Amino acid sequence: MTFIPVQRACQIFTSAAIIAVSAGAVSAASMSVQHALMQFNGVTESNFNSNQEVEGRLYVGGDLTGSTLQVGITPPVSSSYDALVVNGQSSIGTINVLNGNDITVRGAVNSNVNMNGNGEAHIGGTQAAGKHFNGGTKLENQSATDPAFDARFPSIDFATFIDEANYLSTLSGVAPNLSDHNNKKFVAGTPDSSGLFVFNTTAAALSGGGLTLTPGAATTMLINVSGVSVTVAGNVLGGFAGAPNILWNFYEATTIAVNTKIVGSVLAPLAHMSGFSGSTEGSVIAKSINLSNGELHSQPFAGIVPTAKPLPAPVPTVPLPAALPLLLGGLAAISGLRLRRKIAA
Question: What DSSP line would sit under 44-61, residue for residue?
């Protein structure tokens, strides 16, 4: 029998523990709110139901449903991601893809697909029989045949978005001027050194009347909106030139009914959004979206989303494997026994 010296045993098991800890710590970083708003015109954790169009790029964390979707008209920025990325399956009636853009669907596609160009449709499963496919190239069974298929999907974790929304809600800000119901003024004052100006308000401020939205010199005009159930019915007065610099943070809303135009991007990671009786001029992050009326227009977010300052990284400690103390005790006992035998001899 070969005996391993105690010191060498410690080295072996400590090295193994370090490797195990290191391997568990390696994972793809989740996309930040800012990155998601810049890359995508719409992002959902679960389903996206559509009867309309998304001008830019769309990520659907669940299934794509509804009657029709037109996508990829003006993707906001150059990206490695396709004009449409569906993490579930598609049962929408028809997908119209513009300008030769590509699409990726992880599951089956029970939809008609019009590529309108030379784009590729990467389908993890297959397209249902009887559904037409026009233009471009259809690639089926990609989840089994394409080793790089998973790389076509962004790393999106809504827990990260929720954390960011909650952090934004804690930032100091001012109340908008709500003295005139027909002209509620969200007019930014002097921004901080990073270009940020913050408003804190309630859902009631958006339930009717008129809104003036003016970022002014602010690179980012952040509007934190409290309230679990929100109805957006206030009409935006004037144009939407400031849309790329406005971010609405519905940090605690679980339902949002959109009965008018929204100017600016929306962060609502807990909310089921519906209605859209008017176009939204900006990107939207929500738990789910029912785009039954208005469209999502591509107004690339140009602001800077503040993030919490990370705490200093703790010095890593390597826990001993559970069985190691027993093994070391056994080795020590064996060594002691051998030593006693030598002495007795």
Answer: ESS-EEESSEESS-EEES
